[in-house]
Amino acid sequence: MTATVMLPERAAPVIGEYDVVVIGGGPAGLMAATAASRTGRSTLLIERYGFLGGAGTMGGLATFCGLHARVHGEDVRVIRGYADELLDRLAAMDGLNAPHLSVADRIMAQAYDISAYKMVADDLVLAGGAELLFHASATGVVMGGDGVIDGVVIESKSGPGVVRGRFFIDASGDADVAAWAGAPFEKSEHLLYPSLMFRINGVDPVAAGDAWKTVRRLMEEAEDAGTHRFPRKKPIVRPQRNPLEWRSNLTQLSNDDGSAVDGTDVRQLTHGEIQGRQQVRDVFAFIKERTPGFEDSYIVDLAPQIGIRETRRIVGEYLLTEDDVLGCADMPDTIGVNGWPVEAHVQGDVEFRFAPEASRGYNQLPYRMLVPRGVENLLVAGRCASMTQRGQSSGRVTGPCFAMGQAAGVAADLALGAGVAAAGVSVPALQARLEADGAYLGTTEPEPGVL
């Protein structure tokens, strides 16, 4: 049996031509498409699922992490701009929890209703005139020479197609477009471990009380007694908008050799999905049996896909590091900020590292981390932007991805208007445009008391 099969050549129709083409509808991609379209550029957002939100919807995350920072001891929302409009739209649908203290009471997070997020994400992107193409997966690029992408190849139930563009934004999470176009990237030998999220319904909230503390204590006691073993330490079980429903983040997915499941390997992804459901079944049985208020509860939803935290990361003009995060670094080309701690999902545990309690609590995000090397008309935003692994352990969460996406969308307009490559965009002009659209760049003190 031969190891390969030669596939026949085939023609792929051009199904559209746009100023800006965004690949991936997670937090970075939906903000990139929103920002690009509101500059008046014809914009297409390509998403392989039938909805937007990325890990926040298809991964079942149900929590915005990284919207806030602890600034000199006070919790303040530092992700603004089009994120304000998104949150306003969610609030209008009664789809937001109040922000709550998370991770050792050191940082704020904000839960939301997943169905509401799907609907308002559509509204946000479409309001600026962008187009959406769901159920379409990017599978390659067509290069125009000299480091310029001419189009992306997509596959769908309609067959293959090519979308041409003048400028591209890779928000795929895996740096797919950047890698296909020849941009350099890194992939850690020991990846961060993925999880499978699930939601529990039928909880008695009065009896449950502060069950997020109870569940952790019960799991730790069971492990100390030798009666149970759980996938990882530091479980997260918290109430949703309706306190009858709780979200659960307490799985950890690995291969048979103990390594983390790789989100770019289809067999490992398949293994992770099956293993994740097995872990959910086992750990939920423990929670239901042992936790007050959960006696009549049931699993109401398993996330459509396991949540991947890390695969490829481009090597761009600057790599955001752990030292930048913990040292609250200033960047001359700031396009937003990040106040989330380093959150490393290592084997059997989650390691958190915070900036000093008395510090300003956030680092600035440089435009250079969005700029890949060797590809002229491409920016990369989201968890696959240019970061070291431990820098990415912080910068991969929703808040900084919102900021990166909005900056990438505006930068695409500036590049096209000036006829320059991504690396040639005027940073002062970009910063002025972002601030005019309400983004917070970390160059002044944030407005106190804003949650």
Walk me through this protein's architecture.
The radius of gyration is 21 Å and the shape is globular. A hairpin with a 6-residue loop joins strand 14 and strand 15. Strands 1, 2, 8, 9, 10, 11 and 22 form a 7-stranded mixed beta sheet that branches. It has a 4-stranded antiparallel beta sheet with strand order 14-15-13-16. A 3-stranded antiparallel beta sheet has the order 3-7-6, with no helix packed on it. Helix 1 runs parallel beside helix 10, helix 2 packs across helix 3 and helix 10 packs across helix 11. It is an alpha+beta fold and 451 residues long. The protein has 11 helices and 22 strands.
Note the overall shape.
globular
Low-confidence stretches: none
Spatial extent as radius of gyration: 21 Å
Report on the biggest sheet: 7 strands, mixed
Which class best fits the helix and strand makeup? alpha+beta
Mean pLDDT value? 96
